[in-house]
Please model this.
Amino acid sequence: MAENKERILHVDNLQVSFRTQQGILKAVRGVTFDLYKGETLAIVGESGSGKSVTSRAIMGILAGNSIHAGGSIYYYNSGLKHMRSAKVETEEELGEDVIDLMKIDEENFHKLRGTKISMIFQDPMSSLNPIMKVGKQIAEALYLKLGLTKSEAKVRALELMKEVGIPEAKKRFNQYPFQFSGGMRQRIVIAIALANNAEILICDEPTTALDVTIQAQIMELINRIKEERDLSVIFITHDLGVVANMADRVEVMYAGQIVEYGTTDEIFYQPKHPYTWALLSAMPDLESKEVLYAIPGTPPDMHFPPVGDAFAARNEYALQIDFEEQPPYFKISDTHYAATWLLHPDAPKVKMPTVLKNRIARNVKRVKEHGEEI
Amino acid sequence: MSEKILEVKHLNTFFTSGKGKNKLTVKAVHDVSFDIYEGEVFGLVGESGCGKTTTGRTIIKLYDPTNGEIFYRGRRIGGGIQTQIDNIKAKKKEIKVKIKEANGNKELIQQLKEEKREYISEQKELIKDIKSDNAFTGETVEIMRDIQMIFQDPIASLNPRMTVREIIAEGLIIQGGFSDKEIDERVFDILETVGLLPEHAFRYPHEFSGGQRQRIGIARALIVNPKLLIADEPISALDVSIQAQVINLLKKLKEKLNLTILFIAHDLSVVKYFSNRVCVMYYGKVVEMADSDLLFKHPLHPYTKSLFSAIPRPDPRFEKERVRISYNPASHQYSEENKPEFIEIEKGHFVLASPKEIEQYREEMAKADKKIASEQKKKPAAKKPAATKKKVS
Model:
């Protein structure tokens, strides 16, 4: 899968810190991943694991107290060089039209934001302007960026509203955000994000504030639009059920690092990292009766990131070496890697929790009954 | 079956805005009835805006009910007076018509007026009764101490300017009769019960993580030894891993303190896991109510089915094939002859349906039972190959 797809984004050892009153907070500590054209990449983790910071770095909207501590975000074929008045140095060794998003200035970033990379936020109410008609908010994105006239922009905005599934678009065009329900508001936000035909759509927990039925609708909408427009989607969430629905590939983040990544099937049917196990078993499904597995303790204070494996303190499978040295990525398959010492050839053989094992076995069995292979 | 702890009878809570022509009534809770038995977890499910939170808040007297009654252990703790008001209005109209028909017969008019006066004073007596039950004085205060609530948003529901000790102790201080030392002891005790440390008592809410804040909210509710806990989406605002902690905590506390819990949520897998009985609400009405296993075995009402079909599961192959059923209220085609009623279709399983639909549902149930039975027959045969498959995967 990885070979025949066009790589669109390459995040290389990204490190982002924040200046706070307590000192330097290391939010992202060396994150490396690729994003290919037309795929959905899910980033999963608890709050404070750095998943939002990573996505905000890509979008170039980090808070003012952030420090770029190292690493790069390479964006391929941005076309920025061909844009008017752009003065961007391209990375020589990486190829023609490659730019580092961490290095370009705000003026140039302005040309990418919205037209190339778009973002949907968690709370649709606070990302819309409450005193501006929604139609105008969509049209604004069009005439500011694409230079359409206002009447052209209106026609296009109505089309967009229909595309994201808003009934009676003409009537709705002149309404204010408070007249919309949560799901409809999120559709408006999606319409704005798509207004300028962005290539990359970053969704930062777009369904967390919505209830299940509306969540399912929004997920279907994003999936449909992704297919139609061949978008690359970065989907950030802590809900593994949503991930299972949306993602092609999954990255599990903990304490500013990616602890496991692989295809969705690999993560859900053959998880290897104890943190992934914990996340999966913490979620009840319709069959579970046992006491839920709760991850003990809280995430580490990122002002003082722990030595060794960050998850060791909360991990019942932790080895002595976990407290001393950071584990490297161990290869499980071409697409599946996990950073845990348990995969080292010398490590004791540890089995995943029985609850999770049974659940996966149940799921795998059902899939096989349908005559599919995993 | 154990004793009824809470009875809700034909509860209505309406919100009105505007006056005259512009008057707008929102029927947030419309004719909701259910009983909660001692020691059970009663799940209330539905999409946002369906009135489940309003129901919880009406029970704990944050809102006044428009109509209907709420009983706690057989004693009325709240009620609406709309029926009485309507009765009086109707009576007045009726008498007016009768007086007109009396054609100046003074004796008859006098009699009618007397009748009206009597009826009105009777109804006013009832209203007075209900109002005195509604009022937060005397016995009601004692009773209401037995019902406590946990709120959805652990950030918004804790006062940022109060220390944890002040927040938790507030209930005791209002109750009165405790010395500072006793209060401290009980606060430290309860903090340990919910899995926090005594030294946390002197910190402020912003110093805690989301899960810890929800624990503070739980501690605040538990300090006055309630019997019935209303948990209004206590985990919706939390991370998955923290959700499990809070659910486990509630489960443990329920056993330890012998609590009854009204669990309001929209996450069906959690509701299924946690509750004994589940009640599904749609636009202010209860559409289906059953034991949780029963409900998940035969969901009957189309809205329940659509809710079930929307649950995301941590299983990618299942998710990719999932077909979401959407619910259209117009599909019922209710009419005057085909009116929906809340009917017990099997033991402990209630559904809102018209007579026609009941037949249809019965058929569906029989079909589902057959399917389950045939699957169970198959299972022993399928077991062996499944075991070898496990090794392969």
